[in-house]
Amino acid sequence: MARPAGHPSRCLPISPQVQECLQQFKVTGAQLRQIQTSLLGSMEQALRGQAGPAPAVRMLPTYVGSIPHGTEQGDFVVLELGATGASLRVLWVTLTGIEGHKVEPRSQEFVIPQEVMLGPGQQLFDFAARCLSEFLDVLPVGNQGLQLGFSFSFPCHQTGLDKSTLISWTKGFKCSDVEGQDVVQLLRDAIQRQGAYSIDVVAVVNDTVGTMMGCEPGVGPCEVGLVVDTGTNACYMEEARHVAVLDEDRGRVCISIEWGSFSDEGALGPVQTIFDRTLDHESLNPGAQRFEKMIGGLYLGELVRLVLAHLAQRGALFGGHTSPVLRSQGSILLEHVAEMEDPSAGAARVHAVLQDLGLNPKASDAEWVQCVCVAVCTRAAQLCAAALAAVLSRLQHSREQQALQIAVATGGRVFERHPRFLSVLRETVMLLAPDCNVSFIPSVDGGGRGVAMVTAVAARLAAHRRLLEETLAPFRLTREQLAEVQAQMREAMAKGLQGEASSLRMLPTYVRATPDGSERGDFLALDLGGTNFRVLLVRVATGGVQISSQIYSIPECVAQGSGQQLFDHIVDCIVDFQQKQGLSGQSLPLGFTFSFPCRQMGLDQVRKTSGSGAGCCDNRVAQQLEASFFVQAVELNVVAIVNDTVGTMMSCGYEDPHCEVGLIVGTGTNACYMEELRNVASVDGDSGQMCINTEWGAFGDDGSLSMLSTRFDACVDQASINPGKQRFEKMISGMYLGEIVRHILLHLTSLGVLFRGQQTQRLQTRDIFKTKFLSEIESDSLALRQVRAILEDLGLPLTSDDALMVLEVCQAVSKRAAQLCGAGVAAVVEKIRENRGLEELTISVGVDGTLYKLHPHFSSLVAATVRELAPRCVVTFLQSEDGSGKGAALVTAVACRLAQRTRV
Ligand code: BG6
Ligand code: GLC
Ligand code: GLC
């Protein structure tokens, strides 16, 4: 007669009914292989982020990225919930950070009453908090702050080391209002309600992860954690690039497989018995966790009970007597099965257990019951082996290794109490994964030590986060602070207009009107902006404006050389452009947009605006330019020199008559707007308007922004070529934001928060961070790994944690910049509204500049700030498409038109 695998040799000839039942629990090698293959397929599908037709394994990333290096240290409280049936365990674990030096943990177990397991969620977490207090009451902890690791062994979506949402209860728990909630928060709330101790819940982990992480160092890398306790599951270290949801291309991440939910009908169907179906049907979660229900300790006793009840009913056991024990769910426990299936336990022992259970066994019953226990447990171990073999195949495949040498940490009561379980598991794994050399290592302290390890790492990361927050706090401006900036800007504007001492120069531009559409003719324009130098031919005709333009580069030696060199270069470019356009020899009126870089080279120490006529000429600039032309024997008629803000406003104003403000946020920043002439002390006349160039970059040069200035702003200012000057601009514009970021990164590195505290030469290099990096890094479409790639291209070797922090630094710096800029715009539009005595002002702002245009969030943050601070102004932002050169030509055109009219 056939005997099932692991069948004790001294079994009596088996009755046909018993034989038939035992046969059902027999699993063939082919069936195990099919489970192995199907489970592997299900794992790979879930890794790719594709949900299969049936609920399959979940493959949940755990935020544990590396196995411990053994240097972790400190005292930690560990709370375990869910691994071992209806009990909860609290441990006090001390990590010494010294290899081989281990301090025994203290622990206490608490039984969770049935009504708590099935009651309201809050009651369960309050119970846990009470157990914690009770445990800590007898320890000399005083009122020190404690760090807690929470081992919560149910399927959860983790979004951080301390954030984990319960997907669904398993294993006999069914508390209300917990599914879909962050269990860490629920525990924190309960601890707070309890109020006895100051405990910070630092990390949450699955029991499999605790098992893996706690594996004694020294036995080689242990990269699989396997638990067979009340339920069953495994975790392992997967290559991050294979986990679609993570979008990370480097390193490894621990994945909790949640294989208990594996339920491929094709693979599991053939091995499922009528008893499995009944058990599932009568469980708290019918249809779910079907694989777990064939392996987990919660279910083994129940399967044995169902088989024995069936056999008793058919008269094959207990003289055909089905006692109440056999009819009541949960009456046979894992402990009973463990004892009865132990091969060293004789029939007398089995007999005694059955009697203790309230059964009345006959002489032959004991041996047959033992056969049933053996069959149920053997199948469990074989199925578990098929699942583990799938993980090993996965590891072999992802690491491209033919022969895999690996340590598997094992944990849970089924391993501890059923010595046979591990031997059947090992044998079956050898059969299913012959190329793998697996060593099984029992977990330390039931996984508690591993939880403490993860907690230690999480505590370090949390401390880093606090330092990051402290560093960035001064960049996070409140509404009140921004309103104060707006108010100070208004005051400085008023003083500047009156000719009183002010950091805002409020320069009259002699542009009195935006174009009226009657301008005609061909004009040349030069646009010397922050990034580019452009020469344009602007044809203003009845049908509109036509532009031909060319960008010329300005070599660095010229940009940083003498004014003479710069103007000679500009003239070379114009001559080249005229030749290409067939304009050689013609003397077209020329408008010159002239901004920041020239000022920096001292060409514009005193910008004198000539008050005569409608054009606006900076005498020195115009003269220098004309002098250069004279040398080259080229005739040119410089009619207007305009600031880039004015050019931008005029350019957008040609399309939209509401455009009465010009804004530049590029290399530098500045704004202009249409002011009432009566308010401009330095220009005669009381009626009409004039465009005022605020030169707001210098706002705060009188110390009024010192409240907002951080140590990093001070560093950037000190290292600049004009310390103490352009303080507002240095907090906003593209030339400086990268430098602010770099100084913050240097500081964070010195605190050990970034780059493992290693200062690199690269980071000490001035200007390595360009504005374009901020714009790229903050782009929403960019995954963290791309952020990392950008930074690595800069020569900064970093981890994903580092990349995330750098991103946050960039966000804080650019947000402050956009909000300050918004406060400035709010001051300007509110002034215009008040000038005109309007309840509500509708106005457009013409904007240009690389930072404003390329940064993914800058423009919307500016607009949001303006809405907040100037609620009575309806402001539309128009991005200048043609640069400000077109505007300069239009100013020239207006000037020519007015000049003609005076001649007539
Ligand atoms: C350009 C304008 O488009 O923007 C220039 O035509 C202006 O006049 C410039 O100075 C500002 O942007 P950036 O980023 O080049 O300084
Ligand atoms: C259940 C849980 C899982 C846990 C396992 C072992 O399957 O869903 O998270 O790891 O039991 O305790
Ligand atoms: C600088 C210049 C200013 C210019 C601005 C934007 O602040 O001083 O004139 O408008 O940069 O380019």
Short description:
The protein has 904 residues and is of the alpha/beta class. 43% of the residues lie in helices and 18% in strands. The longest helix has 36 residues, at 363-398.
Give the class from helix and strand content and strand pairing: alpha/beta
Arithmetic mean pLDDT: 88
How far do the termini sit from each other? 126 Å
The number of helical elements comes to: 31
Number of strands: 24
Q: State Rg.
A: 39 Å
Largest sheet: 6 strands, mixed
The side-by-side strand order for the widest beta sheet comes to 1-11-10-9-12-13
Distinct small molecules: 6-O-phosphono-beta-D-glucopyranose, alpha-D-glucopyranose
Low-confidence stretches: 1-10, 596-619
Bin the strand percentage.
15-25%
Helix content: 40-55%
Shape: elongated
What structural keywords apply?
904 residues, alpha/beta, six-stranded mixed β-sheet, 24 strands, 18% strand, binds 6-O-phosphono-beta-D-glucopyranose, binds alpha-D-glucopyranose
Explain what you see.
- With 904 residues, the protein is α/β, with parallel strands linked by helices.
- Helix content is 43%, strand content 18%.
- It is built from 31 helices and 24 strands.
- A six-stranded mixed beta sheet has the order 1-11-10-9-12-13, sandwiched between helices.
- Strand 6 (156-160) and strand 7 form a beta hairpin.
- Helix 4 (121-137) crosses helix 5 (183-194).
- The longest helix is centred in the middle third of the chain and has 36 residues, at 363-398.
- The structure holds 6-O-phosphono-beta-D-glucopyranose and alpha-D-glucopyranose (2 copies).
- One alpha-D-glucopyranose binds at residues 530, 595-596, 599, 643-645, 664, 666, 668-670, 695, 697, 729.
